[in-house]
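= Protein in question =
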Amino acid sequence: MKKLLAILIVLLALTACGRPADNGDAREVSVEDLTIVTPKGAPVLAFYDQIGNENYTRVAADAIGALWTGDNSPDVMVVDLSSGVNAIKNGAEYKLAAIITFGNFYVGSTGHDDDGVMNEGDTVVLFGNENMLPNKIWHYLYGTDFDENLVYEADAQSAAADLISGKDLEGNDVDYVFLAQPALFVALKKNENASLYADIQEEYRNKSGLDMIQAAVFVRNDVPEETVSEFLSRLETSINAAIENPELAAEGLSVYTDEEATAQYGFNPAVVVNVFKQKNALGINAMGLGYKKAIDIKADIDAFLSVLGLPETSEEIYVR
């Protein structure tokens, strides 16, 4: 019921923006009038300067799937790359425009492992299930050597609890935990014996020669090319400005504070901005925020999708 309510609220909000029905042709719409939907979490950082924009809506990730089709689907949607590509394959009238997050996965050590080296026999925690990205990335990088001692927790927060306590939710000792930022940052603050063991972005690049890819920007087919171009140019500029000066992101996110901020963004802004200021092993911010036009890195995208068992993309689905 809560999920249905969230979806209905988003649809009503988009309807209120006066969005005309899709007739298959480009329509007149300015950058300021574009309706934008992103999931709560790290992608919100890319839109730190849009928090006060009444056309920008943040929803739970599992509410986005209902918005791909229909007259009130938003002009711009941010979602994980594979979900968006699959939606287009299934008929969604969108094109892939840009990639804005390039991985925020890490492995933390609980401090229990005597030799301090992750190897066969060590217990490793992943979050999600066997069909989700952490499991697929893990097996791409490390194979099946750890399969007998893998523990799956429901989400990054549960995995972080394991790193904090050194035990899984059933009370069994664990050695290493695969999780995402900013959950890692919080866990390391709460357990002085825990430490960062591996930067998954570095491991992925070392093996594939490419960058990891997560959140992607998709734009409706009927948005004029000029408007799309201007929107993407502004987005690239604002993201690069925040990377150079994270205080800009902090200022933009200050529209909401405390519990209301967590409800709006899906994270505590103070924690995320602290993580944002840190660098990962590749020299980019630890949240993985960045900007690349999708068509320019099609080879990277196809290589990443192949890790997930998906076919390569057609150039027809890209914004040129």
About this structure: The radius of gyration is 20 Å. Residues 118 and 225 are 49 Å apart (CA to CA). The chain has eleven helices and eleven strands.
